[in-house]
Amino acid sequence: QVHFVESGGGLVQPGGSLTLSCTASGFPFSMYSMSWHRQAPGKERELVARISSGGSSINYADDVKGRFTISRNNAENTVFLHMSNLRPEDTAVYYCHRYATADWGQGTQVTVSS
Q1: Which site in 3, 7, 54, 87 is 20 to 30 Å from 31, CA atoms measured?
Q2: Three-class SS of residue 90?
Q3: Is the pLDDT of residue 100 over 90?
Q4: What does the pLDDT look like over 79-93, one tens digit per residue?
């Protein structure tokens, strides 16, 4: 059974940083691309960043380029999202996702506010 454990969300001031973690189980993690998505209130869920199975190919949404970094540790079945220079508009629930499948994490709230 596929399972994700997400952590690292919270309240941060504008300009601050957070790192999200997602540890997966129930599938061969190193064989799959992984991604982070977010959903703000009243908006559709959107792709934030994607990383290929081996980590050599990475894509970012335009509005997070240069501020967010996705990475993974295949030995620990974990994908990370390091977020810096956070803005109020980054406030959302962030979801870990086994890319192009129906498998999602439970989500972790990120709130950027002074």
Answers
A1: 7
A2: helix
A3: no
A4: 999 999 999 999 999
Q: How many angstroms separate the Cα of 67 from the Cα of each of 20, 21, 63, 104?
A: 14, 17, 9, 24
pLDDT tens digit sequence for 33-69 = 999 999 999 999 999 999 999 999 999 999 999 999 9
C-alpha span between 57 and 59 (Å, rounded): 7
Between strands 108-112 and 46-51, the pairing is unpaired
Largest CA distance in the chain: 41
Query: Rounded to an integer, what distance in angstroms lies between the CA atom of residue 51 and that of residue 45?
Result: 18
